[in-house]
Design a protein that fits this description.
mainly alpha
Length: 134
């Protein structure tokens, strides 16, 4: 037999589950509103700060993601934000790290090439010849 206390605990648990479901549904609805609704050029103008003529030019050159239906332009906020993110400039630190990595790889390749040349000279000549490249 179920006690009154057990019933109260079950009701509290059901209420908590219901709150979680409601929060998830609201979150999903908000996400859907942001990404699924097509935006007008005026909304994209506000979002990006570009003028209408600039946006029309980008559409003509297929530079900006857009959709065209019955002669009208449509945009999706998520696509525009992704497009904006593609234009990220590297910081000085990121450029420095990338440069160091590339130079390190180049140095390793050059060192490996020198070792191969030394080995090939030893095979071809009875006298060993050492070549150092800079």
């Amino acid at each position: 037999m179920i006690t009154f206390e057990q019933t109260q605990q079950d009701v509290v648990e059901v209420k908590n589950d219901l709150k979680e479901l409601k929060a998830l549904l609201l979150q999903k609805a908000e996400t859907k509103d942001q990404t699924d609704d097509p935006k007008s050029i005026e909304e994209i103008e506000k979002l990006t700060g570009y003028t209408k003529p600039t946006l029309y030019g980008y559409c003509q050159k297929n530079t900006i993601p857009h959709h065209k239906k019955n002669g009208r332009l449509f945009f999706f906020k998520s696509e525009i934000i992704d497009w904006i993110k593609q234009g990220k400039r590297k910081t000085i630190t990121e450029v420095g790290v990338e440069t160091d990595t590339l130079l390190s790889k180049k140095k390793n390749l050059r060192n490996n090439g020198q070792q191969k040349q030394k080995v090939s000279h030893k095979k071809n000549n009875s006298t060993s010849v050492s070549v150092t490249l800079k």
